[in-house]
Amino acid sequence: MNQLRRIAAGLAAPLLVVFAIAIPAAASQFRDEFHKTYPVSPNVNVSLSNINGSVQITAWDRNEVQLDAVETANTQEKLNEAEIRVDASENRIHIQTHYPEHINNNPATVEYQLHVPRMARLDKIDLVNGKLDIDGVKGEVRGASVNGSIIGRGLTGDVELSTVNGGVSSELIDLGNARHVKLSSVNGHVELAMPKDANAHLTANTVSGSITSDFALNIHKGWVGSDLDTTMGSGTTRVELSNVNGSIKIHGGNAGI
Cβ-count burial of 82 within 10 angstroms (0-12 exposed, 13-18 middle, 19+ buried)? Predict the structure, then answer.
């Protein structure tokens, strides 16, 4: 994880810009696959860290975590450098893509697909270059990407999703078990769909971007950005939306996220 933080901390430096742009330009000629299933408890804690590659997490009605990964690289040496490390027990599973301490441009890409129990808790899903897609998880969900969009569908628990370069979209089908929902982006859109009868204390703000909603909300447009602060129903769930360079959209019900 320290390796991941060091890379993410330098996102403003020219080196990371070159690193992010160079990845799709490389021809991936070498490939390997990883497939394994782990028996776990229904509310297992799942965490994952990945530097290059997307992650797709889908809930299912089994007390198992199925891990499928595809590694690709433009040389066999770079393919061998990428190591998938898994620390698994009944109540916790941690997945990490490990590279050598000093990696060159265009390291191997690892794409993950996970099936997890419906009540699993996504403790921390951290990506640097890649898209995160989460579907149907009813436990707590926490995910972040530096360069990549994030989509969450059919969620019901606490949610915290953030990205720097990319959009964040989340569909909350029930807020009954959620205490706190937080969505944020720096360069991209933020989009939230939630029940029309939601009980939420909703705040939203942008630095450079609009806020729109099909709820009857009092949105304030200032000289710089827009903001709102309102209570819906009993205001039980705290919902925070923020954006720097991009819009915020708030929908009632499933808006096709």
Answer: buried
